[in-house]
Structures
1.
Amino acid sequence: MTRVFVAAGGNIDPARRLPQALAGLRAAFGELAVSPCYANAAFGFEGEDFHNLVVAFDTNLPLADVLARLHAIEEACGRERQAAKWAARAMDLDVLLFGDCVGEFPGAILPRPDLLKRAYMLGPLADLAPALLHPTSGVAIAELWAAFDKTDWQPRLVSLA
């Protein structure tokens, strides 16, 4: 079994779409561990706040199949693939870590390069798996988060219920 960590977020009706995405993830992968959900200012453009969290699950599926299922869940939540990179999103599901896989794969670079640069990814991952070792640095996620410059991160905890 491979432990997979996925960042989930969006800023178009996130109160409805994040629970929808979680239901899709449970249907596709079974039991999930879910971090707290945070509202964060849009990054890279002006827009509504994003709601972000991280989920973890175990799977025997290869990375390509996991990515295909994530894309299907995104689309079911209203994701448009042709949207600009820095724009409003109905749903983003991004693989952060896929076990200890390191390298470039079709559709993914692992570990996700911006994991260590984006508070909205690293913070929820630290909530969920603080003792987990980052596969390239060998440092615990909690230590990476403690050293992270949080100056510009002004999150609000939000409920998904």
Note: The chain has a mean pLDDT of 94.
2.
Amino acid sequence: MATKHPWRVCFLPALFCLALAAYLPDSHLLPLRAWAWPALVLLALAGLGACWVLAGPGGMQWRGRGTMPIALAWLTVLGLALHGQFQPDLQRHALLALADREPGRLATLGEHLVVGYDEPGQVRELARLGLIGGLFISRRNIEGKSPDQLRVELADLQAVRRQAGRPPLMVATDQEGGPVSRLAPLLPRQPPLSSVIAPGRSSAGIEARAQAYGEAQGRALADLGFNANFSPVVDLKPAQPAGALDFHTRIAERAIAPQPDTVSRVALAYSRGLHGEGVMPTLKHFPGLGGVTQDTHHFTAHLDTPLETLAGRDWVPFRRILGQTPAMLMVGHVMVDALDKTRPASLSRPVIHGLIRVAWGFDGVLISDDMTMAAVYDRGLCSSAVDALNAGVDLLLVAYDWEKYFQVMLCLDQAQGAGSLALLEESQARLARLPWRGGG
């Protein structure tokens, strides 16, 4: 005997699957996608079959109470699941077709993207066509590999660039030492940089120890084929421990010290050691996370410290080191309320252009923190990428959920076609000065 109201059986699973299918493209759910997309397809087909059976002897005539909307919900789940599963491939094909028609324009935009990847074959063609400017290597790229295997992999991608007549790729990682050591255990794990000022160690030797630390790290990285490192962390160490919802930032564990002078001394010597071995240092995470309690990987975050305090304390290490080294600066996704309450620093023209470029006079390379972090991703990845470049950021990092790169590039191409990217020429001049591009 058929169930009188099939919607009672179908409603809850349809609602759950619809919510999951709608939210699954979000970067937070990246670990689930490999099995969730095909599972949703199968569940949607099963749900449609159940609605058909439970509609009774007349079959699916869309007249049973609740049957039609639930069946439509399962159809929507099926459509979303198929779209999500194949969208990156469709975007990739669209991007490669555009590159075939307008290779110069796409290569110009590609210079501004630094991407992660799972397998080197995924980025080989992008590297050859100039659709990316750099690579971010993380723990997923070293699993099961020896140092020689990674060295050969990176050299092969650089050879692809060279054979195509293109400048070398930036090859970067997060090898801070301590808890953030993306290449461990491939490279020996170092203690955190703060270890150079550990209790009982002479204050007179701080700079020498920090420089030696940077030199050792730089030699190891350069030997594998890296030319940039997203380190040192120059956020001031906060007095309070990480909040309960701070799953990833955890600055208290990564920062050098709470005193700006100490941070400046250690990070400057470290940066000189790293750079002396041919690896570009990157100061992070401007505007400083020492006074921020929210984790921008997951939430909007505000820095409500007065400008006078920031200038005399939190920003001291950034300015001192940028003035004495060729380091890059990574801009994070925190809102500096005193300058811009509506946009994160990475997207804010008052912060990037008004403060860093004009007030500080910094004309070096700015790179965003990962654009798939929720603090910017939730604002719209397309508009955020355009806003970041128009604010004066030079490089956009798309590392964790790396396939979002295709969406970013298509959006930037559309904006460039509409004349909405105004600062690319200035930015390209800065990128051309990077050492691996032939600059100083």
Note: The chain has two domains: 7-87, 102-437.
